[in-house]
């Protein structure tokens, strides 16, 4: 499905990103694997190469502008073109407006979850126009929900992501470039653990119980939707925010 295509997936050293980049590799794409943990990136690259894919490891912290700027250029230098950009890198931090240091929390989240997305997208656009490629942004159902306490900064960043997706879809449509987002509900990854929550704290939140089906998705369910949106099967789809939430928003 993606033979002779070149795909960048940011935040692909683990979780949804790693699963997604491996699926693209399995479907024939050459892949740029981007993240902060070089050892994990090497493990992901090895799995991609087992599918016969050509890989490029880019160790970069997207929250650092000088590092984020290199991602697209390194990909072009290696593969000569770009067909799909998956803006997946993101962090979750807990905090609320009552805390004196809340603005620090907000800045940290926005400087990882949104600012680099704008920068990397801007740099990728000329190459995507050349290939009539597309963009898939990783958002969240929390863009439209306030029911998990402490996730204000994260939720705001994802609401911004949804609106960014719509605006860029409108602006790139004349060039034939599609732009969509994927908005998962609860997913089994380590994002909550990396946010500083203990297993007990995570269990007390119990996001799976907030869904109609009483379950969290697994990463394979999310990556299949990313692949669909990036494929020619979705050639009529742009500006959409695809919800995969087990009924989270309806409960």
TrEMBL record:
Domain Ketoreductase: 5-191
Alphabetic keyword roster: Oxidoreductase
Statement: the UniProt record of this protein carries the keyword Zinc: no
PROSITE patterns the record matches: ADH_SHORT (PS00061)
Superkingdom assignment: Eukaryota
GO biological process: lipid metabolic process
Pfam families in UniProt: adh_short_C2
GO molecular function: oxidoreductase activity
SMART domains: PKS_KR
Family matches, as PANTHER family: EG:BACR7A4.14 PROTEIN-RELATED, ZGC:101858
Protein name: Ketoreductase domain-containing protein
Organism, scientific name: Mythimna separata
